[in-house]
Amino acid sequence: MMLVPWLLLGGFVLVAAASFWYLQLDLAALVSADGGHQMLQYAAGFFPPELAPAFLARMFHAGLETVAISAIGTLLAAVAGLALGLPASGRFGQIARAVTRLLLNFLRSIPELVWAALMVIAAGLGPFAGTLALALHTSGVLGRLFAETLENAPSTPTAALHDAGSDAAAAFLYGTLPSVMPQLVSYTLYRWENNIRMAAVLGVVGAGGLGQMLFVSLSLFKQAEASTLIISMLVLVASVDAISAVLRRMLGRSGG
Q1: CATH for 54-255, among 1.10.3720.10, 1.20.1250.20, 3.30.420.10, 1.10.10.60?
Q2: Do 142 and 77 form a contact (C-beta atoms < 8 A)?
Q3: pLDDT in tens, 164-203
Q4: By three-state DSSP, how is residue 47 classified?
Q5: This prediction's pTM
Protein backbone atom coordinates (compact mmCIF):
# COMPACT_ATOMS: atom_id res chain seq x y z
CA MET A 1 0.00 0.00 0.00
CA MET A 2 2.93 2.34 0.65
CA LEU A 3 3.85 2.02 -3.02
CA VAL A 4 0.57 3.54 -4.26
CA PRO A 5 1.27 7.19 -3.20
CA TRP A 6 4.71 7.05 -4.85
CA LEU A 7 3.20 5.67 -8.04
CA LEU A 8 0.60 8.44 -8.05
CA LEU A 9 3.29 11.06 -7.44
CA GLY A 10 5.43 9.60 -10.22
CA GLY A 11 2.45 9.61 -12.58
CA PHE A 12 1.74 13.24 -11.74
CA VAL A 13 5.36 14.21 -12.42
CA LEU A 14 5.26 12.43 -15.78
CA VAL A 15 2.01 14.17 -16.73
CA ALA A 16 3.47 17.56 -15.72
CA ALA A 17 6.65 16.92 -17.74
CA ALA A 18 4.61 15.82 -20.76
CA SER A 19 2.47 18.97 -20.41
CA PHE A 20 5.57 21.20 -20.48
CA TRP A 21 6.76 19.41 -23.61
CA TYR A 22 3.36 19.55 -25.31
CA LEU A 23 2.84 23.25 -24.55
CA GLN A 24 6.45 24.06 -25.51
CA LEU A 25 6.99 26.21 -22.42
CA ASP A 26 10.40 27.87 -22.28
CA LEU A 27 11.29 28.16 -18.59
CA ALA A 28 14.83 29.16 -19.44
CA ALA A 29 13.60 32.39 -21.03
CA LEU A 30 11.45 33.08 -17.96
CA VAL A 31 14.32 32.84 -15.48
CA SER A 32 16.95 34.44 -17.70
CA ALA A 33 18.46 37.80 -16.80
CA ASP A 34 16.69 39.53 -19.70
CA GLY A 35 13.34 37.97 -18.75
CA GLY A 36 13.76 38.97 -15.11
CA HIS A 37 14.60 42.55 -16.11
CA GLN A 38 11.51 42.79 -18.31
CA MET A 39 9.27 41.45 -15.53
CA LEU A 40 10.71 43.91 -13.00
CA GLN A 41 10.28 46.76 -15.45
CA TYR A 42 6.66 45.79 -16.08
CA ALA A 43 5.94 45.36 -12.36
CA ALA A 44 7.46 48.77 -11.59
CA GLY A 45 4.82 50.36 -13.81
CA PHE A 46 2.15 49.42 -11.25
CA PHE A 47 3.64 51.86 -8.71
CA PRO A 48 2.57 54.33 -7.58
CA PRO A 49 -1.15 53.63 -8.09
CA GLU A 50 -3.23 56.15 -10.03
CA LEU A 51 -5.04 58.52 -7.63
CA ALA A 52 -6.38 61.20 -9.96
CA PRO A 53 -9.83 62.36 -8.74
CA ALA A 54 -11.48 61.84 -12.13
CA PHE A 55 -10.19 58.27 -12.33
CA LEU A 56 -11.22 57.51 -8.72
CA ALA A 57 -14.72 58.79 -9.47
CA ARG A 58 -15.01 56.46 -12.46
CA MET A 59 -13.64 53.59 -10.38
CA PHE A 60 -16.18 54.25 -7.60
CA HIS A 61 -19.02 54.13 -10.12
CA ALA A 62 -17.64 50.88 -11.57
CA GLY A 63 -17.37 49.44 -8.04
CA LEU A 64 -21.03 50.20 -7.36
CA GLU A 65 -21.83 48.57 -10.69
CA THR A 66 -19.90 45.45 -9.66
CA VAL A 67 -21.78 45.22 -6.36
CA ALA A 68 -25.10 45.70 -8.15
CA ILE A 69 -24.27 43.01 -10.71
CA SER A 70 -23.41 40.51 -8.00
CA ALA A 71 -26.36 41.39 -5.76
CA ILE A 72 -29.03 41.31 -8.49
CA GLY A 73 -27.54 38.20 -10.08
CA THR A 74 -27.53 36.41 -6.72
CA LEU A 75 -31.08 37.52 -5.89
CA LEU A 76 -32.41 36.33 -9.25
CA ALA A 77 -30.55 33.05 -8.79
CA ALA A 78 -32.01 32.55 -5.30
CA VAL A 79 -35.56 32.97 -6.64
CA ALA A 80 -34.90 30.71 -9.63
CA GLY A 81 -33.00 28.23 -7.45
CA LEU A 82 -35.93 27.88 -5.05
CA ALA A 83 -38.38 27.51 -7.94
CA LEU A 84 -36.21 24.78 -9.48
CA GLY A 85 -35.21 23.28 -6.13
CA LEU A 86 -38.81 22.36 -5.28
CA PRO A 87 -39.29 19.93 -8.18
CA ALA A 88 -35.64 18.86 -7.92
CA SER A 89 -36.30 17.73 -4.34
CA GLY A 90 -38.92 15.26 -5.59
CA ARG A 91 -42.01 17.14 -4.43
CA PHE A 92 -43.65 16.90 -7.87
CA GLY A 93 -42.73 13.33 -8.76
CA GLN A 94 -39.65 11.52 -9.98
CA ILE A 95 -39.92 12.63 -13.61
CA ALA A 96 -39.96 16.31 -12.62
CA ARG A 97 -37.08 15.60 -10.23
CA ALA A 98 -34.92 14.02 -12.94
CA VAL A 99 -35.65 16.70 -15.54
CA THR A 100 -35.06 19.57 -13.14
CA ARG A 101 -31.80 18.13 -11.82
CA LEU A 102 -30.59 17.71 -15.38
CA LEU A 103 -31.35 21.39 -16.01
CA LEU A 104 -29.53 22.40 -12.80
CA ASN A 105 -26.51 20.33 -13.81
CA PHE A 106 -26.48 22.08 -17.19
CA LEU A 107 -26.70 25.57 -15.68
CA ARG A 108 -23.88 25.11 -13.19
CA SER A 109 -21.60 23.08 -15.47
CA ILE A 110 -21.04 26.13 -17.71
CA PRO A 111 -18.62 28.60 -16.05
CA GLU A 112 -19.65 32.19 -15.44
CA LEU A 113 -17.16 33.55 -17.97
CA VAL A 114 -18.64 31.35 -20.70
CA TRP A 115 -22.16 32.43 -19.75
CA ALA A 116 -20.95 36.06 -19.81
CA ALA A 117 -19.47 35.65 -23.29
CA LEU A 118 -22.77 34.18 -24.49
CA MET A 119 -24.82 36.90 -22.79
CA VAL A 120 -22.66 39.66 -24.27
CA ILE A 121 -23.51 38.29 -27.70
CA ALA A 122 -27.21 38.03 -26.81
CA ALA A 123 -27.71 41.19 -24.73
CA GLY A 124 -24.76 43.40 -25.69
CA LEU A 125 -21.88 44.83 -23.68
CA GLY A 126 -22.53 46.07 -20.18
CA PRO A 127 -23.75 45.06 -16.72
CA PHE A 128 -26.93 43.38 -17.96
CA ALA A 129 -24.87 40.62 -19.57
CA GLY A 130 -22.86 40.12 -16.39
CA THR A 131 -26.00 39.98 -14.25
CA LEU A 132 -27.57 37.34 -16.49
CA ALA A 133 -24.36 35.29 -16.52
CA LEU A 134 -24.14 35.21 -12.73
CA ALA A 135 -27.86 34.49 -12.40
CA LEU A 136 -27.75 31.53 -14.78
CA HIS A 137 -24.73 29.81 -13.25
CA THR A 138 -25.72 30.53 -9.66
CA SER A 139 -29.27 29.27 -10.28
CA GLY A 140 -27.79 25.87 -11.02
CA VAL A 141 -25.63 25.92 -7.89
CA LEU A 142 -28.30 27.22 -5.50
CA GLY A 143 -31.01 25.07 -7.04
CA ARG A 144 -29.03 21.93 -6.26
CA LEU A 145 -28.19 23.11 -2.74
CA PHE A 146 -31.79 24.11 -2.08
CA ALA A 147 -33.04 20.76 -3.38
CA GLU A 148 -30.73 18.85 -1.04
CA THR A 149 -31.83 21.04 1.88
CA LEU A 150 -35.51 20.50 1.13
CA GLU A 151 -35.02 16.75 0.78
CA ASN A 152 -33.39 16.59 4.21
CA ALA A 153 -35.89 18.89 5.93
CA PRO A 154 -37.82 17.35 8.86
CA SER A 155 -41.21 16.09 7.72
CA THR A 156 -42.99 16.17 11.11
CA PRO A 157 -44.27 19.80 10.95
CA THR A 158 -45.53 19.37 7.40
CA ALA A 159 -47.24 16.07 8.24
CA ALA A 160 -48.91 17.66 11.25
CA LEU A 161 -50.31 20.48 9.12
CA HIS A 162 -51.53 17.97 6.52
CA ASP A 163 -53.30 16.02 9.26
CA ALA A 164 -54.89 19.27 10.47
CA GLY A 165 -56.40 19.83 7.01
CA SER A 166 -53.90 22.25 5.44
CA ASP A 167 -53.27 22.05 1.71
CA ALA A 168 -49.83 21.34 0.25
CA ALA A 169 -48.92 25.01 -0.26
CA ALA A 170 -49.81 26.02 3.29
CA ALA A 171 -48.01 22.98 4.71
CA PHE A 172 -44.86 23.96 2.82
CA LEU A 173 -45.03 27.65 3.75
CA TYR A 174 -45.70 27.09 7.44
CA GLY A 175 -44.19 23.65 8.00
CA THR A 176 -41.11 23.21 5.82
CA LEU A 177 -39.96 26.70 4.82
CA PRO A 178 -39.39 28.14 8.33
CA SER A 179 -37.11 25.25 9.28
CA VAL A 180 -34.92 25.51 6.17
CA MET A 181 -34.96 29.28 5.62
CA PRO A 182 -31.79 30.04 7.66
CA GLN A 183 -29.84 27.47 5.65
CA LEU A 184 -31.23 28.75 2.33
CA VAL A 185 -30.26 32.32 3.21
CA SER A 186 -26.82 31.15 4.37
CA TYR A 187 -26.22 29.40 1.04
CA THR A 188 -27.36 32.54 -0.80
CA LEU A 189 -24.99 34.76 1.17
CA TYR A 190 -22.11 32.37 0.53
CA ARG A 191 -22.79 32.44 -3.19
CA TRP A 192 -22.90 36.24 -3.04
CA GLU A 193 -19.33 36.12 -1.70
CA ASN A 194 -18.32 34.07 -4.73
CA ASN A 195 -20.29 36.22 -7.15
CA ILE A 196 -18.69 39.48 -6.00
CA ARG A 197 -15.33 37.99 -6.94
CA MET A 198 -16.61 36.76 -10.27
CA ALA A 199 -18.42 40.03 -11.03
CA ALA A 200 -15.10 41.81 -10.56
CA VAL A 201 -13.52 39.86 -13.42
CA LEU A 202 -16.45 39.37 -15.80
CA GLY A 203 -15.46 42.62 -17.45
CA VAL A 204 -12.77 40.80 -19.44
CA VAL A 205 -15.57 39.77 -21.79
CA GLY A 206 -17.28 43.18 -21.65
CA ALA A 207 -19.75 42.51 -18.85
CA GLY A 208 -19.22 45.83 -17.04
CA GLY A 209 -17.96 46.81 -13.61
CA LEU A 210 -14.41 46.99 -12.30
CA GLY A 211 -13.35 44.08 -14.47
CA GLN A 212 -14.09 45.99 -17.66
CA MET A 213 -12.06 48.99 -16.44
CA LEU A 214 -9.19 46.67 -15.49
CA PHE A 215 -9.25 44.98 -18.89
CA VAL A 216 -9.13 48.35 -20.68
CA SER A 217 -6.30 49.62 -18.45
CA LEU A 218 -4.18 46.51 -18.98
CA SER A 219 -4.89 46.54 -22.71
CA LEU A 220 -3.57 50.12 -22.91
CA PHE A 221 -0.58 49.28 -20.64
CA LYS A 222 -1.76 51.73 -17.98
CA GLN A 223 -0.33 49.75 -15.07
CA ALA A 224 -0.84 52.53 -12.52
CA GLU A 225 -4.59 52.52 -13.19
CA ALA A 226 -4.62 48.72 -13.10
CA SER A 227 -2.87 48.80 -9.71
CA THR A 228 -5.58 51.05 -8.24
CA LEU A 229 -8.31 48.86 -9.70
CA ILE A 230 -6.75 45.67 -8.32
CA ILE A 231 -6.49 47.25 -4.86
CA SER A 232 -10.13 48.36 -5.03
CA MET A 233 -11.17 44.82 -6.04
CA LEU A 234 -9.33 43.36 -3.05
CA VAL A 235 -10.95 45.86 -0.67
CA LEU A 236 -14.40 45.27 -2.16
CA VAL A 237 -14.13 41.48 -2.00
CA ALA A 238 -12.77 41.56 1.56
CA SER A 239 -15.58 43.87 2.68
CA VAL A 240 -18.31 41.71 1.18
CA ASP A 241 -16.70 38.56 2.62
CA ALA A 242 -16.67 40.13 6.10
CA ILE A 243 -20.28 41.33 5.88
CA SER A 244 -21.48 37.96 4.56
CA ALA A 245 -19.57 36.05 7.25
CA VAL A 246 -21.14 38.16 10.01
CA LEU A 247 -24.63 37.68 8.57
CA ARG A 248 -24.13 33.92 8.23
CA ARG A 249 -22.93 33.68 11.84
CA MET A 250 -26.04 35.56 12.96
CA LEU A 251 -28.20 33.16 10.95
CA GLY A 252 -26.37 30.21 12.48
CA ARG A 253 -27.05 31.45 16.00
CA SER A 254 -30.71 32.20 15.23
CA GLY A 255 -31.13 28.80 13.54
CA GLY A 256 -29.53 27.01 16.44
Answers
A1: 1.10.3720.10
A2: yes
A3: 767 777 777 777 888 888 899 999 998 998 998 898 888 7
A4: coil
A5: 0.81
